[in-house]
Amino acid sequence: MDTLRESFHYGSSPLTASSLSSPYNAYLFGSHISKSLSPLLHGILFRSLGASWNFHLVQTTDKQRFQDKLTSPETIGVSITMPNKVTFGLVLDDLTEAAQVIGAVNTSFVRLDSAGKRRYIGTNTDCVGIREAIVQYDSTAVATAKGNPAMVIGGGGAARSAIYALWKWFSPSEIYIVNRLKSEVDDIVKHFTAAMPGIQLQYLADIETAQSLPAPSIIVSTIPDYPPSEPGEILCWQICEKIFGKVEKGLFVDMCYMPSPETSLVKAANKAGWRTISGTEVLVRVCVAQQVLWTERLPNQQGVSEAIAAITQPQSAAKL
């Protein structure tokens, strides 16, 4: 995978021939993570590769506690979730292009400098999870999406990961953004115009604009699954319905998987004739991308299938 190859730009491997049987640990740092699915998924994926490594939850926003765990010789990698994706990235030794452009870190991996000293590299695997979920579902997606519009629903950090993934790997003509707050979209446009020169972003501010534009080939939704109530939320839903109703149908990807992978938007897209990918698929692919960086091995496909099967049923609230 390109993410593994690129990781060695930051140093050499810390692993040895016996590392998979060594007592290494990986961690998730964040708030309100007691119901996280990460231990389940990483446990399955570790076992599928023959690694006797353990995955732990650390509920904290304390940078010193994070750094103490990070720099332990037994730590092989970490996952970072809200509200730490920006602040914890500041204590790492370097950031990948993805982390810098998106502006958030969700993963750190270890590489060695020329003197053999450990370096802690921050990256963003949310974007890789989006890409892999799409191309594993449809191997022709990169070719068919090229030169056609794409669309992102939302205005937070996950939306930025989706914009990065779509523009970098699927070459759309432009990316529509649907969001309840124009101010968030303004910030996104300003950020990406500087970070990814040449990117084409358009805010869909009303139903008439949505109706007049060509249908996107890929849509990625990053918003929670709850009934729209505020005016901005209701307008977003109406715009999505208008897009779903176009004659041309594409692929809809939802990053939300709570409380059920079959979100309201997935149901609406399915009903309108769109192909759909649920948030659980993206979630697993994000974990797989993390493990590729930590174990330096390509994923075991049986393990990936087992991980997906383990979380296909409706779940209680969880955070990666």
From TrEMBL:
Mind telling me which InterPro entries this protein's record contains?
Answer: Aminoacid_DH-like_N_sf, NAD(P)-bd_dom_sf, Shikimate_DH-bd_N, Shikimate_DH_fam
Task: Please provide the Gene Ontology terms (biological process) for this protein.
Answer: chorismate biosynthetic process; shikimate metabolic process
Q: Boundaries of each Shikimate dehydrogenase substrate binding N-terminal domain copy?
A: 28-107
Q: Which GO terms describe its molecular function?
A: shikimate 3-dehydrogenase (NADP+) activity
Entry protein name: Shikimate dehydrogenase substrate binding N-terminal domain-containing protein
